[in-house]
Amino acid sequence: MIVVSLSATGLRAQKKAEILVSAAISLKDAFGEISSVYEKQTGIRVHLNLAASGLLQKQIEAGAPVDVFASAGLKQMDALQAGGFIIPGTRRNFAGNQLVLILPAKSSYAVVTFEGLRDPNLSRLAIGNPKTVPAGQYAKQVLKKLKIWELLEPKLVLAENVRQVLEYVVRWEVDAGIVYASDVPASRGRVSISDIAPEDSHDPILYPVAVVKETESPAEAESFIDLLLDDPGQTILRKYGFLPTR
Amino acid sequence: MIWHTLKLSLLVGAIATILIGFIGTAFGYLLARRNFRGKDVLDAVLTLPMILPPTVTGYYLILILGRRGLLGSPLYELTGWTVTFTWVAAVIAATVIALPLMIKSARAAVESVDTEYEIASRIMGKSEGETFFRITLPLAGRGLLAGIVLSFARAFGEFGATLMLAGNIPGRTQTMPLAIYEAVASGEDERAMWLALILTSISITVVYLTNRLSRPRKSA
Q1: How far, in Å, CA of A148 to CA of A143, rounded?
Q2: Preferred mutation among B19, B22, B62 to probe A, highest tally of A CBs within 10 A
Q3: Backbone φ and ψ of B166, nearest 5°
Q4: Which residues of B touch A (CB under 8 A)?
Q5: Whether the predicted pLDDT of A5 surpasses 60
Q6: Which among A16, A61, B7, B204 has most CB atoms closer than 10 A?
Q7: Do A62 and B187 touch (CB under 8 A)?
């Protein structure tokens, strides 16, 4: 209790020139860079809290002291908005993404397109679990649209996050995998993109951001979102494989 | 950054272990030596964090201690401070998760002490407290120490509940397991490997020590 009350008074005394941004862990590299730009421009310190979007959502619902929430899925943001946890007027989509078919970098077996997944020689395809992983839901939509979902179902390896799909492909545990374009740089050249899913084959992949209602620094939080939507932010996001929203 | 992370992990592990040592021994003694209504229920509740997925325990913790939580909200009203996303949260998460290990070890250690010594001490007019510190504690010492070391190892490696309650904030609440999670998620394989090696070697050392300590003394 002594520890608790000491740090309580300590925190109260200091006027905080800092914000806390909860961001989906898939945004790590891009947000790290954007935060440094923001810190340089404003002198306001940015703390990043990185985890799965669903977990970040639960933290905010429980009253965690977050200023900005950047989600990898619309679902989590919609839930927070419905519960009155964010300021609706500040909500924006700051990035998009593409779904890509990837192969191990030196694969001798070349599936060239999504259509090519029909090939009977294909033994295993990794996607995110459509029940829990957004990228898996989109992948299922694409395969359904191409009418090859039923055909491929017995060959699917379901992963618990996109990163795991990437790992399976890197380690040649599967012939191919379906991930976001922005996940590919993390493989450091050990996978190659062989096809991009047509935009109309799945729901739009969008990343929403908003100011959390209970923030004590609304102005700083909004200026962070402005930077995200403006040029330095959008350029950095593009560098990491995300699509600009405008 | 690795040093900061390691320092924080050791600090969190150490403070959690001290808390666990006291709380766990008290509950272990209570369960071993006292009979009261609801004892089995208490035992079950105290064991929960060991059985539930740590993320679920973390979810309970944030429901209780968060700014909107049962205890968290009066605390916030009173002080304007919330435990969420502080290093204190990491200590609480680690403590709750590792506590059952200590309680189980302490209970077994106390139960292994022959009650006749305690009875003799009480007959000679010593209070229960004095009997505990002079008789029970020294005789159960080896088992308690093993429990403490094991609890430290568990607290040091805590991930799920910590991620939920303390967040994953580099330089503030990011402990070793969280840093590994983040490195793996962003494809920094080499960093992930080094962090994992450090964490593993510390844990192995600790578990090795536990085994040494809990081995029964060879009778000469």
Answers
A1: 5
A2: B62
A3: -100, -15
A4: 55, 59, 62-63, 66-69, 72-73, 76, 79-86, 88, 163-164, 167-172, 182, 184-187, 189
A5: no
A6: A61
A7: no
Can you give the three-state secondary structure of B106-159, one letter per residue?
HHHHHHCCCHHHHHHHHHCCCCHHHHHHHHHHHHHHHHHHHHHHHHHHHHHCCC
Q: Is A214 on the interface with B (CB under 8 A)?
A: yes
Indicate the SS3 state at residue B26: helix
Per domain, the residue ranges of chain B are 2-214
For chain A, residues classed under CATH 3.40.190.10 are: 2-96+205-239, 99-201
Q: Which of A1, A7, A49, A80 to mutate to test the interface with B (most CBs of B within 10 A)?
A: A49
Nearest C-alpha in A relative to B160? A55
What is the homologous superfamily of the domain A99-201 according to CATH? Answer: Periplasmic binding protein-like II (3.40.190.10)
Write the pLDDT tens digit of every residue in A81-101: 999 999 999 999 999 999 999
Location of structure tokens 């950095």: A236
Is A6 touching B (CB cutoff 8 A)?
no
Query: Out of 1.10.10.10, 1.10.3720.10, 3.20.10.10, 2.60.40.10, which CATH number does the structure's domain B2-214 have?
Result: 1.10.3720.10
Lookup: tokens for B92: 């609480």
Q: Which helix (H) or strand (E) element contains residue A242?
A: none
pLDDT in tens, B9-57: 999 999 999 999 999 999 999 999 999 999 999 999 999 999 999 999 9
**Token pair belonging to B37:** 């209504």
Q: Which fold has domain A2-96+205-239?
A: D-Maltodextrin-Binding Protein; domain 2 (3.40.190)
Tell me the per-residue pLDDT of A34-70, one tens digit each, with 9 for 90 and over.
999 999 999 999 999 999 888 999 999 999 999 999 9
Contact B5, B179 (CB under 8 A): yes
Instruction: State the complex-level ipTM.
Output: 0.79
Contact assignment for B82 to A188 by CB distance below 8 Å: no
Q: 């292994």: which residue's tokens?
A: B112
Is A64 in the B-facing interface, judged by CB distances under 8 Å?
Answer: yes
Cβ atoms < 10 Å from Cβ of A204: 12
A196 touches chain B (CB under 8 A): no
